[in-house]
Amino acid sequence: MTKLTISHLRGGVVCLCFHLHISLARFLFVSPGVVWTLQGKTQYQNPYFAPGCLKLFQPESVFSHLQRFVGNGNSESVVQNKLSHPVRTRFLRFVPLDWNPSGWMGLRVEVYGCSYKSYVADFDGRSSLLYRFNQKSMSTVKDVISLRFKSHQAEGVLLHGEGQRGDYITLELHRGRLDLYLNLDDSRARFSSHRVPVTVGSLLDDQHWHSVHIERFNKQVNLTVDSYTQRFQTKGEGHSLEVDYELSFGGIPLPGKPGTFLRKNFNGCMENLYYNGINVIDLAKRRKPQIHSGNVTFSCSQPQLVACTFVSSSSSFLSLPSASPAVGGFSVRFQFRTWNPEGLLLSVQLNPDPQQLRLQISNSWLRLTLHSSGRQKSEVSAGRRVSDGLWHSVSLDARNLQITLTVDNEPSSTIELWEQVQSRGSFYFGGCAATAPDCQGFAPAFQGCMRLIFINSQLMNLSHVQQGLLGNYNELQFDTCNIKDRCLPNLCEHGARCSQMWSSFSCDCSGTGYAGATCHNSIYESSCEAYKLSGSSSGFYFIDPDGSGPLGPTQVYCNMTEKKVWTVLSHNSTAPVTVQTSSLQKPHVMIFNYSASAKQLRAIVSGSEQCQQEVVYNCRKSRLFNTKDGSPLSWWLDREGEKRSYWGGFLPGVQQCSCSLEENCIDMNYFCNCDADTDTWANDTGVLSYKDHLPVSQIVIGDTDRMGSQAVYHIGPLRCYGDRSIWNAASFYQESSYLYFPTLQAELASDISFYFKTSAPSGVFLENQGLKDFIRVELSSPSVVTFSFDVGNGPAVLSVKSHVPLNDRQWHYVRAERNAKEASVQVDQLPLRFLEAPADGHLRLRLSSQLFVGSYLFKKEGGGGAKMTPGVSAGCPGYCTGSSSLCHNRGRCVEKSNGYICDCSQSAYGGTTCNQEVSVSFDRESSVTYTFQEPFSVMQNRSSQASTSSTDSRAREDVALSFVTSQRPAMLLTVSTFSQQYIAVILATNGTYRNHTWKCCSCASVFFVNANFKNMNMLLVGKEGELNNILVSEELQQKYTLSSDAELILIRSLTLGKVTRMENFDEEVIQGASKGFIGCLSSVQFNHVAPLKVALTNRGSSLVTVRGPLVQSNCGALAESHTLQGKTSTSMTLMICLLRLTNTRKDLAVIAGVVTAVVFITVCALAVVIRLVYQQRRAQRSSGSIKEEHRHSMYTDYRTELHLHNPVRDSVKEYYI
């Protein structure tokens, strides 16, 4: 251990650029403990850990930003500062950031570290080191390879070795990343042209030292670059790596050698290269015979390419004068790297005036534009995907009436000139100064790095620019390329693709099953129970059993036909399997592969209330247990691969079958029917229901090898019901009561959601703390919910204020989320509050205490599971009490023993709380018809009620729907009755167009509602007594007066869209009905019926008839698209036609009278017939006259019945308002 103490004092005037540079005389391995004292200094910065170099450039990759250290405020105290990582360095530089107001300053530093030995080799791109083995080939089961390297090239082979068996190992630098190809006796990989590497690291061509460590044992490999480790298993059948003759480092000595991928050798420096404990560079330096070195030097003489960073996308620029103008033109060359797909690279004014040349990045391509007088311009493009973070070289030459653009030695692009041009004024790189002529308002400024800038073949000295001796600049960082790969590590979750710009990244969640800024939130429900609560019916669904966790969604079948909702997971063997000729020595083995992974199965089973799986075993001379010692002859394996020999109906460990429990085995001397070993078929069927063992992963049959032995088995699907997480409530009765759980695992992302109800004005819902970091959700005031956290960037606070008190003893919903890009919080249906994460801030939330729920944080010692203090009880009484906000849109709150559910059967909406719109897109031929009752049942019901004064007609009809359309006119809704009444809701045009086309003169009631329709339009039509209320867009309400006896009687059907059955409609209404409806209808409600919801959830229902294409849609998105396209009708008229049948009660009385008369006449006729039969023998002669009288009576009755129906027909009239 080395201790270096340095004291530095200075008085007088303080220089603003003062810093202390310490030379350690030799390389030291500085441990993560640095101690110093400061007098008069409160903050200090140690930004540079650069081995062997006095230049100012970026620290090694282990530091993502400059480190700030806190000093003391007096001369007595000592402040200890620890480095986050150990460093290898020779020079340290301390830069003051803040000074004591008294003007005194002093520094005493103690640095602790150990001596560090460095063995360095320099490869020039044509050299390599060959390590030859003592024998012909080397076969190893374990390998450990470590090295450090630095380079300014993005390509190059670091290590290669291969064997005749097909084994190979190649470590190469490719596109600034490190690729490892490793194959152990895999013939497929040997002959395959597409070999997939394991890739780690990024931007490794930054001229900084990077450490690599490869450790392999058998097929398990750990590849570490800097502080990131990738663990994987090799492909192939072998467990050893067999390499022939030699290993090469730094390149391939023979280009085109089989097994190589990139022919380019490494150009850079390697340090401390070890292969299985052998110091390869040391052997080469001492010229040992097993090492062959070609053109390798043993000092790192790589030139340091000075770069500058353009920081701002709006104001960064670098202005350089033209160096010794060339005769007849000019030339510019430079290298750049960036992530941004847009940005200005170069701008220069040209002579003859006015002309301007611009080089910019446009959609990740380079575009060169020559602007001439007026609006004339010439353009060419070159390069592709130049915003990939790699260095790209650009050459621009104006010679011989041509301007030539070359990118990365690709074919050039040329602009032809009418006359020779010459540069005028300065060259602007990356952007423009505010005073520069004709340089504003085009492309955004360049954000990225540039180096090796040549103007007219002269290299521009960026150090002179920094010192103010050359050109001008703004918002630039010199001597460093401060580019970062924000997609390494990939902060997008669940396999989403990460893309980035200079200061941010974004995630493409397509095909992942997740959504959100980092693809954190699952788009699927967590269980079939949740789908049931959302109003879904039986079918196949994707469920995500751990929500936003790592498991991912899986497809299951949800059976909702019973009271319990069953989750069904099938496997690969659904049909019965016949087994013969199997024994314990050669048993029959069947492995079951389910539609879900093992981890998903475990999550589904553990999250369910109960699970079961049926096992059917039909046998003939095939036993399950040996009759002598009771050892199993057949068994099955549980989900963990453990052997189980119970066959349902009993607890684990009991080797019995269900018939033993039910005491109905065919031979009561045995515990299973099959153990009777009869020559006839027997059956043992059981249901496995011990959750910890389910599902069955494998079955083994071992007793079918005797004469006449045979078995047929069938393993049913895994079936589970219940969701233990649907409602998990707790009540807190004391201020000091709380629940505590293990530490929240939420380093990079977390989401928290819950319901609460309280009468307290404030309180902490949840809190977890670390050393400095914390996360908290609380009710900070009666109407404000606050979500706060600190990940090292200072406290971040998001608050949602409700317009009503939240401590009203009603249920309220809270959801908070934090990820690497943003944080959000939502309360009930209030707007979501967002807070973006700082671009270069800390990301990881480091917590150490327990998670406390229900009260303020108290430091307690706890165990691994959830625990509670006194004053906490499970459950929450009265879930639906005062819960008007729980179930929306006519949804009914239903109390459960452990929670509540929303019954959405009477609502046009779906979802857990009846707040999800049910929307459908219609075209001209689409229609949905809902049939209320059949004619016979209706008439039968009416007849049964005719004797009473009450009728079945409603005193109120309520219609509610949302729609969006660009069609006019359009038929929205039609209601028809068996009594020839109807309601037609038509969207008509305004003004003369309405009068010309839609006279509707024969409608009984016509309402025209003029409104400006924008996006989604709400229509509510309610009739009660004599008043009709029409509400459009919740802004316009009108009332109309109808006749008091205008009621709908015997409603037959309701049709949305095009109407095909129009025998009783007016001619004008028929014209509108034939045009149908083009657009989107949503949440249609007619009294208690939701026809759209029924059509989508019960396709097979006899009450619903669907014609034409019908697509479930989103009216909100459709409305937005119509608005963007400018197609939304801005002034329309809603026309509602009502054809009424009046004198309803009078007509019903007539009908009742007719029915009574018919019944009375029928009874009388029957009495007459009986009397005639009785008197037949006694009055034979008078029979003819009696029959004639009977015929006359029947004819009279029939005529009477016809006359009684005439008043009913005559009363059918039309009335106009």
TrEMBL record:
Ranges for domain Laminin G: 120-300, 307-481, 728-914
SUPFAM superfamilies: Concanavalin A-like lectins/glucanases (SSF49899), EGF/Laminin (SSF57196), Fibrinogen C-terminal domain-like (SSF56496)
Transmembrane segments: 1148-1174
Stretches assigned to the Fibrinogen C-terminal domain: 519-571
Record localization: Membrane
Location, primary (coarse class): membrane
Taxonomic superkingdom: Eukaryota
Keyword rRNA-binding: no
UniProt cross-references to InterPro entries, sorted A to Z: ConA-like_dom_sf, EGF, FA58C, Fibrinogen-like_C, Fibrinogen_a/b/g_C_dom, Laminin_G, Neurexin-related_CASP
Keywords: Disulfide bond, EGF-like domain, Membrane, Repeat, Signal, Transmembrane, Transmembrane helix
Pfam families: EGF, Laminin_G_2
One cellular-component annotation, GO: membrane
Cross-referenced PROSITE patterns: EGF_3 (PS50026), FA58C_2 (PS01286), FA58C_3 (PS50022), FIBRINOGEN_C_2 (PS51406), LAM_G_DOMAIN (PS50025)
PANTHER family for the chain: CONTACTIN-ASSOCIATED PROTEIN-LIKE 5 ISOFORM X1, PIKACHURIN-LIKE PROTEIN
Matches recorded under NCBIfam families: GGGWT_bact (NF040941)
Family, as annotated: Belongs to the neurexin family.
The protein's name in its UniProt record: Contactin associated protein-like 5a
Originating organism: Astatotilapia calliptera (Eastern happy)
Upper lineage: Eukaryota, Metazoa, Chordata, Craniata, Vertebrata
